[in-house]
Amino acid sequence: MNKHNTYIFCDETKFYLNNNDSEESIYYLGIAIEKNQYLKLKDRLKEILENRRIKAKTLHSTSIFRKKRPRIELMEDLTNLIIDNNLKCFCHKYEKNELFEKAKLLGKFNSSIINFNKVEFQALFFFMTNLNTYIRDFKPNLLEKEIGMFFDRNVYGVNETESFVFPNDNFIISDMTFCEKSEIDLLFLPDFIGFILKKTIENTNSENVGNEVNENANKNYIKLKSSGNLNFVNIKNEIIEKTINKLK
User: Which domain holds residue 117?
Assistant: First the structure.
């Protein structure tokens, strides 16, 4: 990690119609932390968790925030940690029904590490490439270079830590690494953002009225969005489709 000046820690949250969700999508969340902030934030997160008596070895919002124990104060602590340290957050939405079949046309590029026939790979691919375009072309002064991305195990890193370097000069993000979440405590922050986003979307369902976890998540998501720290990086689907047509 020492070669980077900015770390973007990433996680995803998924919606499936088969699970009675309102959409068929995968949202990727990223949170940027500068090298000189890393140890301070790691220590502050540890302090918050100790103060709120969280003892889990691996930090997952879905197991920490529950109906029987909504932990309202902890949600507020985490939101304030992000805002008070002016951490830049990123949200990217992959819509399966819009892109999956179109992007399968890129299957000619499939290999042992590339698979456009899988929804999860496509979601990761569009997040990675769109975030790179967003930072490079639309927000060139937002983050200090060199930039590395770090993920919880999902598409890659299932059995062991995996890293990939981007040799192309078009990539302002130099590489990405997939590892066990317990190895990097700060991966809990994008997990948390994804959680409050998902609960906010669920909160529009009348069945969740009175659900303290959902309502408090909604409150904190609105606070984060209002702070200006949350960047929506989706490139319009029409542009993505044109790109696909040029490559296929």
Answer: 6-247
